[in-house]
Amino acid sequence: MKILVCICPVPDTTTKVAFSDNNTHFNTQGVTFIINPYDEWYSLVRALELKEAGVATAVHLVTVGKADAEPVIRKALALGGDEAIRIDTDSNDTYAVAAQIAEYAKTDGYDLVLCGKESIDYNNGTVGAMVAELLDMNYLGFAAKIDIAGGTATVTREIEGGEETDACSLPLVISCQKGVAEARIPNMRGIMAARTKPLKVVAPAAVDTVSTIVGYELPPAKTGVKMISADNMDELVNLLHTEAKVI
Amino acid sequence: MSVLVLVEHSQGVFKKKSLEAVQYAAHVAKELGTSVTAVAVGNVDNAAMQGLGAYGANKVLHTTESRLENFNSRAYTKVMLAAAQKESAKVIVGLHDTVGKAVSPRLAARLKAGMVAGAVGYPDLSKGFVVKKNVFSGKAFAFVNVTSDVKVITLMPNTFQVVKGEGSATVENLDIAFDDKDFSIQVKEVSKASGSVPLSEAELVVSGGRGLKGPENWHVLEGLAKELGAALACSRPVADSHWRPHHEHVGQTGGTIRPNLYIAVGISGAIQHLAGVNGSKTIVVINKDAEAPFFSAANYGVLGDALEVIPKLTEAVKRFKANH
Description:
The structure holds two protein chains of two kinds.
Chain A: E1 2-6, E2 9-11, E3 19-20, E4 25-26, E5 33-35, H1 37-52, E6 58-64, H2 70-79, E7 83-87, H3 94-106, E8 112-116, H4 127-134, E9 138-149, E10 152-159, E11 162-169, E12 172-176, H5 188-196, E13 199-202, E14 211-217, E15 226-228, H6 233-242
Parallel strand pairs in A: 1-6, 1-8, 6-7, 7-13, 8-12, 9-12
Antiparallel strand pairs in A: 2-5, 3-4, 9-10, 10-11
Helix pairs in contact in A: 2-5, 3-4
Chain B: E1 2-7, E2 9-10, E3 13-14, H1 16-32, E4 35-41, H2 46-50, E5 59-63, H3 73-86, E6 89-95, H4 100-111, E7 114-119, E8 130-135, E9 140-146, E10 151-155, E11 170-173, E12 186-192, E13 204-208, H5 218-228, E14 231-234, H6 236-240, E15 261-265, H7 271-277, E16 282-287, E17 300-303, H8 306-323
Parallel strand pairs in B: 1-4, 1-6, 4-5, 5-11, 6-10, 7-10, 13-14, 13-15, 15-16, 16-17
Antiparallel strand pairs in B: 2-3, 8-9
């Protein structure tokens, strides 16, 4: 069984977000890029566990991005995985990203495609379901637990107002969140090995871009906190009712 | 031409966030000079569907098929594709929840439609089809211009106030020829929390951090939440220490919420936590550390130990409720 893990480079979670060129571009100056936590902690680590358990025969990593995405994909390879594929194009259009991954996946027959439930930068959470549609596969979103045996995945996942456990035969696309696996730290051996693992650069497929980001905005700053004495909770409740009008 | 909207119900009662989505669709339809068709799936009676007219739906397409009872993105996508074709849909609205996040992208991929996931504003047609959405987990907003003929939007719940108007929608059956393949996911077990408000839909949220000192103290927070009718949330360290279940974790790597009121108790307010909650309309911070960064993101602040302040606040809420 072959697993394809989708990896998205994102700004570090401590990044103070700023924009340039009249608020039309995300300012990457001084920003450290990391592997999207949902992709790393959950989907990649679970894929590695499945390989270590002898369930998966190969784990490939794929990312859509220009050469500057390579340090992040090397970091992912340091955790594990047999090879990485970088589709050489840049896009913030979620359809275009999904279509590139799907086109690549078609060329190499994967049984399982794993991705994070969303990337922490654009928060779309759309790529997994789009890839599933483009590959005509089933999709299980928001997995908290994944087991695979005899070509069937058993997945416990979040649904509206609760949890559901499903069984579904492969091939399948799953998006992962907390619970699927525990975060790992790459060791020196992994980091050394990652340097020599194959990182294939493939030309992008001809895919239409159907949306573009035309501007950004920062949320309005809070006007200042009103401090209330801990001995006067009636005043707080009163303010929430009369001033904030939320209760 | 029409604006299509997928509506969700719980045992025949349409969810508030779906009424919000219908209202959103009606606004878009008015701008485009067209009508709204809602799509309802499963066991729901005619009166409830006609009632969607009060929120702006002109028509409801209803499909009943027992196998649709458990949500499955492939079958639901088939329903929406059939409806989109029948109604020549130009804009397809869903919710940015576990249903919408699975169906809408499939639909967009199939229709090669540009998509805005997590919209927090109406489309601005003066500049094309530009929609504001959350990015960087609430640290910023982006304006996305959708350039395809058909547009797909998932709306962030609790973005607009729901106002009931007049009107009644017509109801039509939508017949779909399903394949066995559409239902190849076998549902083994479903567990739904009963009675409590799901965190993502809650208007009031009470959230705890390490300042509560341990899981044994959570009943104090639960008492306040119960009195307010609020949902419970927590910070990442609390979920990581297994004091509380993971699904209660809000922040950049947990859930993103935008309730009307967010009360943060014993949470310092790291940038990652703020990211998940700064869409909240009003923030109250209770912390014993005057230097806690959360105070500068709050509307109201109380300096004090969580375990001493919370019972006082709970009592004050009780007194307020007795008088209102």
